[in-house]
């Protein structure tokens, strides 16, 4: 089936998909041959945010770089594709690295949830330590966190009380920047929002926190909505993996 020539209608569909999405992969070829109606519906669904939303083409690709590179997903072929497209559409190498930096910091979302629960369970068990005095180190760390992010999530109190030295190195990781054409604060926040909101992570508190921060940094509702819409697109990786497998199985059966 894959050796047969495409019909003129299929060729037109393929050309339109490439024009709108910028790529053509084995799974899209398989869908074109097996379920062209689904491919068309998906192209309209996935293409709507980019066509209607305010984010730049480069920023859209960086969102996909963050999502595909996230440890909650690790979709290497998509990551390679969207890194190349991000550079092609104007992103700098440093912006790609900083996007991956944010994906690395996503691991802290689990820590934030766990430390909060630990503090609650220690209190419930009567094992909570006495309040930590606001010494100079902790005051300085809190001031630095507030300067970076403008808010003070509940987990920070627990973490700062339990291990201020770790809190300090965590801040070093979050604040680390290189000189050059990197991401601005709003872009960093929107990318962190994508990582928190995607169904591979589904961190409600982190998502709310990043939405609040994005609004505070001047992001519009349309920009935030576009990021949220784009997180849903990772669902198509079921087809990206499954359709080539189906095509191979069909070929093996003759």
Give the tally of β-strands.
0
Please give the CATH class of the domain at 55-108 and 175-234: Mainly Alpha
Mean pLDDT: 94
What is the architecture of the domain at 55-108 and 175-234 at the second tier of CATH? Answer: Up-down Bundle
Structural class: mainly alpha
Series of secondary-structure elements, N-terminal to C-terminal? HHHHHHHHHHHHHH
Q: Calculate the terminal CA-CA distance, rounded to whole Å.
A: 10 Å
User: What form results from the Cα inertia axes?
Assistant: elongated
Helix content: over 70%
Sheet bearing the most strands, described? none
Strand residue percentage: under 5%
Rg computed from alpha carbons, rounded to a whole number of angstroms? 22 Å
Task: Please report the number of helical segments.
Answer: 14
Give the CATH H-level superfamily of the domain at 55-108 and 175-234. AhpD-like
How would you explain this protein's 3D organization?
The protein is mainly α. It has a domain at 55-108 and 175-234: AhpD-like (Up-down Bundle). Helices cover 73% and strands 0% of the residues. The chain is built from 14 helices and no strands. The chain has helices at 8-21, 26-34, 36-52, 57-69, 76-88, 93-105, 108-124, 136-149, 154-162, 164-175, 185-197, 204-216, 221-231, 237-253. The longest helix is centred in the first third of the chain and has 17 residues, at 36-52. The protein starts with 7 loop residues before the first helix and ends with a helix. The mean pLDDT is 94.
């Amino acid at each position: 089936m894959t050796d047969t020539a495409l019909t003129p209608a299929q060729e037109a569909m393929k050309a339109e998909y490439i024009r709108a999405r910028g790529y053509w992969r084995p799974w899209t070829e398989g869908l074109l041959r097996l379920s062209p109606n689904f491919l068309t519906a998906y192209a309209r669904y996935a293409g709507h945010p980019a066509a209607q939303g305010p984010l730049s083409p480069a920023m859209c690709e960086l969102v996909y770089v963050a999502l595909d590179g996230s440890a909650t997903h690790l979709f290497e072929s998509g990551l390679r594709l969207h890194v190349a497209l991000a550079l092609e559409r104007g992103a700098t190498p440093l912006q790609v690295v900083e996007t991956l930096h944010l994906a690395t910091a996503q691991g802290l979302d689990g820590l934030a949830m766990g430390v909060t629960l630990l503090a609650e369970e220690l209190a419930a068990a009567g094992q909570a330590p006495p309040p930590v005095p606001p010494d100079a180190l902790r005051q300085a760390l809190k001031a630095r966190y507030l300067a970076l992010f403008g808010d003070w999530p509940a987990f920070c109190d627990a973490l700062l009380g339990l291990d201020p030295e770790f809190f300090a190195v965590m801040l070093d990781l979050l604040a680390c920047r290189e000189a050059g054409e990197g991401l601005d604060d709003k872009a960093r926040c929107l990318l962190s929002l994508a990582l928190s909101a995607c169904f591979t992570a589904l961190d409600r508190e982190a998502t709310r926190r990043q939405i609040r921060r994005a609004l505070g940094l001047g992001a519009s509702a349309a920009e935030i909505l576009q990021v949220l819409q784009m997180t849903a697109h990772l669902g198509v990786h079921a087809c990206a993996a499954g359709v080539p497998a189906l095509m191979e199985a069909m070929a093996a059966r003759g």
